[in-house]
Structures are given as C-alpha cells and as structure tokens.
Design a protein that fits this description.
Layout lengths: L3 H16 L4 H36 L5 E5 L4 H12 L5 E4 L4 H10 L6 E4 L2 E4 L3 H10 L1
Parallel strand pairs: 1-2
Antiparallel strand pairs: 1-3, 3-4
Helix pairs in contact: 2-5
C-alpha cells in the first residue's frame, strides 16, 4: 500500500516525464546543418579550383610554371595529376635525379616539395589559387 508521499512523488515524477520534450529532432537538425555546411564548403573549393584552372589554361605558356619535385612526394603526384588533367602547361624538375634541379632547390632553402615557380615567383606547396594569382600578376 502506498502512502500519500509516495503517490505525490510518483505523480510528480510522471508529470515531469510527460512534460519533458524529446530532443531527438535537434540532433538530426544539427547533423543536417553540419552536412550542408561541409558540402557547401567542398563545392566552393571545387569551383574555385576550376576557376583557377581556366585562368591557368588561358594565361600560362610553356615555361611559365616550374615544379620542383621528388619521385616519392604524394603532394607532387597530386599536383601532377591536377595540372595534367586540366591541360595546364608546366615543367617538372626532379631534385633527386637532376643536379640542376637540386641546385635550384638548395638555393631556395625550403623544407620540402613541391616547390612551385611561376615566372620566377616561388611558393612551397601546391595551391591552384596561388598559381592563378601568380600567373595574373606577371
């Protein structure tokens, strides 16, 4: 048999239980929002990369872009693939195999490859946006 105190606690407990809103929908909303933001960011990155490719295709001439590389560099492979797929004219210089390239690399004093040059302006790393800006400047 229950006492009035127990009944009150039970009623209060059940009243709280029925008035507490469920929050499952808020998690799904958050997941959807994060997904949309991420997807939008990826789409913007792709669009800017393709804009850079069009700029490079129209303004770059053979000999304008030089990339110092090594055969084992994954970033160099990515740069090679990107520029080849978009028909951007460029020259590659392997610092492990060509002494002239090794001298250029050492003279720059940079810590890694790919080392990109656009008409004498240097940048460490592969960045299509930097390439398109550099080709426009010169």
């Amino acid at each position: 048999m229950s006492t009035p105190e127990t009944d009150t606690e039970t009623n209060t407990g059940s009243a709280l239980r029925t008035t507490t809103p469920r929050r499952r929908g808020s998690w799904w909303s958050l997941i959807v929002i994060v997904g949309l933001v991420w997807g939008g960011s990826q789409a913007m990155h792709w669009w800017r990369s393709e804009q850079a490719a069009r700029t490079l295709q129209s303004l770059a001439r053979p000999g304008d872009i030089l990339m110092l590389t090594t055969s084992t560099c994954p970033y160099c492979a990515k740069a090679r693939a990107w520029m080849s797929a978009r028909s951007v004219p460029w020259q590659e210089c392997d610092v492990e195999r060509e002494p002239r390239c090794a001298l250029l690399y050492e003279a720059r004093g940079t810590p890694g490859v790919p080392l990109m040059s656009v008409r004498g302006e240097w940048n460490l790393g592969f960045d299509p946006l930097w390439l398109s800006e550099a080709i426009r400047k010169r």
